[in-house]
């Protein structure tokens, strides 16, 4: 199975743009940057649009599957992971991308999010993290900080926030990264790395929502409100951090790298936020395990198998 096109045909960003679909995102929304980042990543990897499937949840971010020229499925609120799992298991020749909001993934879909990490299925989940439920007019989402209050919240949040990177790593995702929607090229590079990673990958993309989130604005991310006027975001690689598990088959090496990555995600560095790849572990995928149980899967996707050509008489005999 390969996730890249080996340079057969050159695809360009417009090849991944859906024709004649009206985009109703607000002007200046961070969603545009993430959409462009996904399309740029697909073009850079040269993946044929008919070999890509995009599954989206409910929310402003959920509309993304409509705007990408690929197979698309707009599912129920919080159900990105089970749908992506079913799609990938049925046709492992597809590159499967899940997309959805932080409310969708870490709120209503939190149980599925955790279960998705345990499996190490080969798919990529891009989460649009704007700290609010945007489509329903800006209620607090699970990633908003305790004590924070946007203009659409009646009071300050009284809950501790979920840390997406720490949650993803502890759930078992084997590639975990964070990016920023308005840095499109960086987001595209991280998404391309996530797609190329053989296993479950999460990219949490910090996103502006100019309509409802008046706290985490472009100015805020650029740090223009800070005395030192320095960007709030810094890149992990600029500090020499490398989250790759050095000995992938050694459990100690895995847990030490995990602990270091979680520490990076939780550390408060003068209010600054790290972006980049926190954790990468190359290990057997769910598909590898399943191919051992059902050897035909190693060469043939389930959708290409003739499910009616099975002799179930031994099973029936047992039940008689
Ligand atoms: C089962 C269910 N509960 C609630 C809703 C209402 N609803 C629609 S979108 C949404 C929030 C979306 O927020 P998020 O996932 O963060 O995406 P965003 O709009 O911010 O991109 C909610 C609660 C729904 N559609 N279905
Ligand atoms: S409400 Fe926010 S997230 Fe939704 S389209 Fe408008 S700016 Fe974007």
Question: What would you note in describing this structure?
Answer:
This protein is an alpha/beta fold and 320 residues long. The strands form two sheets. The protein has an eight-stranded mixed β-sheet with strand order 2-1-3-4-8-7-10-9, with helices on both faces. The protein has a two-stranded antiparallel ribbon with strand order 5-6. The chain has eleven helices and ten strands. It has helices spanning 31-45, 64-67, 80-90, 102-108, 110-119, 164-171, 184-196, 218-221, 251-266, 286-293, 313-319; strands spanning 52-56, 71-74, 95-101, 124-129, 132-133, 139-140, 175-180, 201-206, 233-235, 273-280. Strand 1, helix 2 and strand 2 form a beta-alpha-beta unit. The radius of gyration is 20 Å and the shape is globular. Residues 58-61, 77, 100-104, 128, 130, 132-136, 141 line the site of thiamine diphosphate (TPP).
Helix content: 25-40%
Low-confidence stretches: none
Q: Looking across the biggest beta sheet, what order are the strands in?
A: 2-1-3-4-8-7-10-9
Please tell me how large the radius of gyration is. Answer: 20 Å
User: Count of DSSP E strands?
Assistant: 10
Question: Which terms would index this structure?
Answer:
320 residues, two-stranded antiparallel sheet, 32% helix, 11 helices, binds iron/sulfur cluster, eight-stranded mixed sheet, single chain, binds thiamine diphosphate
What is the topological layout?
Layout: H1 31-45, E1 52-56, H2 64-67, E2 71-74, H3 80-90, E3 95-101, H4 102-108, H5 110-119, E4 124-129, E5 132-133, E6 139-140, H6 164-171, E7 175-180, H7 184-196, E8 201-206, H8 218-221, E9 233-235, H9 251-266, E10 273-280, H10 286-293, H11 313-319
Parallel strand pairs: 1-2, 1-3, 3-4, 4-8, 7-8, 9-10
Antiparallel strand pairs: 5-6, 7-10
Helix pairs in contact: 1-7, 4-5, 5-6, 6-9
Iron/sulfur cluster is lined by residues 25-26, 29, 31, 60, 130, 134, 209-212.
């Amino acid at each position: 199975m390969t996730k890249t096109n080996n340079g057969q045909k050159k695809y360009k960003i417009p090849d991944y743009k859906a024709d004649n679909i009206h985009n109703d995102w607000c002007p200046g929304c961070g969603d545009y940057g993430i959409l462009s980042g996904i399309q740029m990543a697909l073009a850079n990897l040269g993946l044929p649009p008919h070999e890509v499937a995009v599954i989206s949840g409910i929310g402003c971010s959920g509309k993304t599957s409509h705007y990408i020229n690929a197979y698309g499925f707009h599912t129920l609120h919080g159900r990105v992971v089970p749908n992506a799992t079913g799609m990938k298991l049925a046709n492992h020749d597809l590159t499967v991308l899940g997309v959805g909001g932080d409310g969708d993934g870490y709120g209503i879909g939190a149980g599925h999010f955790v279960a998705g990490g345990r499996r190490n299925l080969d798919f990529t989940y891009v989460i649009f993290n704007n700290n609010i439920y945007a489509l329903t007019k800006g209620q607090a989402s699970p990633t908003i900080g305790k004590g924070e209050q946007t203009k659409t919240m009646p009071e300050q949040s009284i809950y501790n926030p979920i840390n997406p990177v720490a949650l993803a790593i502890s759930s078992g995702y084997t590639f975990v990264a964070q990016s920023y929607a308005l840095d499109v090229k960086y987001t595209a590079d991280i998404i391309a790395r996530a797609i190329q990673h053989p296993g479950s990958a999460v990219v949490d993309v910090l996103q502006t929502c100019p309509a409802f989130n008046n706290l985490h604005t472009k100015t805020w991310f650029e740090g223009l409100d800070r005395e030192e006027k320095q960007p709030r975001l810094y890149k992990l690689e600029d500090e020499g951090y490398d989250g790759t598990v050095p000995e992938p088959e050694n459990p100690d090496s895995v847990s030490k790298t995990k602990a270091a990555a979680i520490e990076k995600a939780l550390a408060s560095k003068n209010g600054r936020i790290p972006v980049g790849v926190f954790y990468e572990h190359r290990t057997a995928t769910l598909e590898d395990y399943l191919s051992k149980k059902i050897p035909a899967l190693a060469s043939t996707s389930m959708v290409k198998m003739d499910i009616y050509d099975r002799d179930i008489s031994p099973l029936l005999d047992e039940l008689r």
